[in-house]
Amino acid sequence: MCAAPGSKTFQLLEIIHQSTKPGSLPDGMVIANDLDVQRCNLLIHQTKRMCTANLIVTNHEAQNFPGCRLNRNHERIEPDQHISQLLFDRVLCDVPCSGDGTLRKAPDLWRKWNSGMGQGLHSLQVLIAMRGLSLLKVGGRMVYSTCSMNPIENEAVVAEVLRRCGGSVELVDVSSELPQLIRRPGLKSWKVHDKGTWLVSCKDVPKYRRSVILPGMFPAGGSYQELVDNSNCNADMGDNIGVCTNGNSEDGVQTVEEPLTHQAAEEVCDFPLEHCMRIVPHDQNTGAFFIAVLLKVAPLPATQEKSKTEIVEQNVEPLNLSLEDARALQINSSEGVLEEVSKAVPEEILNDTEQNTEDLEVSPVEEQDSKETEEPPIVENMAKKVPSKRKLQIQGRWRGVDPVVFFKDEAIINSIRAFYGIGEHFPLDGHLVTRNSDASHVKRIYYVSKSVKDVLKLNFSVGQQLKITSVGLKMFERQSAQEGTDAPCAFRISSEGLPLVLPYITKQILHASSEDFKRLLQDKDVKFADFADAKLGEKAANLLPGYCVVILDRGNRSATEYPKVDESTIAIGCWRGRVRLTVMVTAMDCQELLARLLIRLDPEKGASVNVDKSSNNVGDEP
Ligand SMILES: C[S@@+](CC[C@H](N)C(=O)[O-])C[C@H]1O[C@@H](n2cnc3c(N)ncnc32)[C@H](O)[C@@H]1O
């Protein structure tokens, strides 16, 4: 729900990919959402290393995340429509919080933190958690987490959610899971700090603070309406605030720092909040975290099931919405919450408590020039193209975001299949998407898993409710080589896509000895006649001009027997020119691969190769 910068998304992707064989994809998928588009870019950048076709990155307010529910108004139902609503097996709500759990790594928080921060975020946290639960299948689990120790952002949110769900959601006892993780039970009782006083119950909240200190922040919850109805002494409390002994004057000026010495017994929450996990810094030298696992055992009560946006959208035909309408819908739907939050919370806290490491310039607009440097020398000079901000595109439903379009150009797809010898058992139909509706100008083609394909189809049918900033694995890129304009196939395989498609390629493949492979990585460009293995030079000359793949030969094959592609296969993309092979891998990746190759050949010598680990450009070894 709140996924950027993406460390947990990366872990989730690792989990779904862990038992996948080379050349196949997991059944599962991850939708990673964040409100902040810049931070979405960070997430896209971080997860690029996973080379996954099973990820969709979206840019919504989590509390209004679209449900993409098909109803009878949606006439454009795609053929092969497998799902009629977005419902998840697992949801992670790692919500924005005041971040006091990161005090050790963000020392300036000592100065900035105040109790108003958590109170300003509480409502948003509840709304995000409720939306997460409504997107969860019955039987599914949701994790609610923060990096705060503040009960108002933790147990109070969980308790309020449980109250609103009325038995349809249970707090799971996970005390026997991850036994090595030292944790403390959640709190059952706490007080609310406001303007120098400690409030025990919502009955203590003076009238003029009731828009800020909500009943749901207290262990037993409650309602201010009840207090008004029950018009005895409680109602007077707020009116008598001018003489209140708790130290607040009527204008809200704090007069004493001492806790309120309230005679009433502390409120205790009825829910089993001890099932929540508290991780504190001094237990195992970490930051502080709060984690609660919720199980949806039945549909939520009807009043809690839908986001405001969905309720509005049910009465509007999505395809008829103008862009402005769509935008306004998004903005208006959150007004109440954001107004409240912004009163108390500095923007950087709302956005995250983790340090913003870098400002990425990558745009969600896909066709912007990428920073890749793997172009061979013969490829057109990309620098000629304007790298600055592109004109906003208004093509799909969402302003500024290129549309996601299924790529169906059969002539191109067939030419790719024929050139690389990719058989029908590698499905391309319906798995290829672009971010450009003009097929003749498509530069990049992305591969999506079946699960992602199903969600994209649903999204089309419901009028593109999802604002998708990134989807799929870059698989094919248009080739614009000057020398290779006569190359029979207009598309080369991208280094990210190569590991997935490699087991299915039967043409344009060479196997090189470690000596020749090393030479390619070192020199980047080797004439056919200069290979140590003359047969390699001959085979290279016999390939069609254009992109080809060179696989490191592990020396265990006979002349006819080709090694199978597995996790340890090392392969690189090259350009077969008139008289030479040119490596199409970044200099950094060449260096990394060289180091790996040397380790494989001679572990001692390989270990001494100096590889600059500061680069993010990790090798693309399959
Ligand atoms: C604690 S961080 C998430 C960290 C992330 N889960 C990770 O592991 O890298 C909170 C995120 O919530 C995002 N955010 C804040 N308000 C949001 C909202 N209303 N909807 C969605 N995301 C929101 C912020 O941009 C920020 O990236």
| CATH architectural label of the largest domain | 3-Layer(aba) Sandwich
In total, the number of domains comes to 4
Query: What is the helix content?
Result: 25-40%
| Structural classification | alpha+beta
Broad shape? elongated
Listed once per kind, the bound small molecules are: S-adenosylmethionine
Oligomer: single chain
As residue ranges, the low-confidence spans are: 233-261, 311-395, 611-622
User: How would you name the CATH homologous superfamily of the largest domain?
Assistant: Vaccinia Virus protein VP39
Per CATH, the class of the largest domain reads: Alpha Beta
How far the N terminus sits from the C terminus, by CA atoms, comes to 31 Å
**Beta-strand content:** 15-25%
**Tally of helical runs:** 19
**Radius of gyration, taken over Cα atoms and rounded to an integer in Å:** 29 Å
> What is the tally of beta strands?
21
| Average residue-wise pLDDT | 80
Task: Report the CATH topology name of the largest domain.
Answer: Rossmann fold
Protein name: SAM-dependent MTase RsmB/NOP-type domain-containing protein
Main location: nucleus
InterPro entries: MeTrfase_RsmB-F_NOP2_cat (IPR049560), MeTrfase_RsmB-F_NOP2_dom (IPR001678), Pre-PUA_NSUN2 (IPR057285), PUA_NSUN2 (IPR057286), RCMT (IPR023267), RCMT_NCL1 (IPR023270), RsmB/NOL1/NOP2-like_CS (IPR018314), SAM-dependent_MTases_sf (IPR029063)
GO molecular function: tRNA (cytidine-5-)-methyltransferase activity; tRNA binding
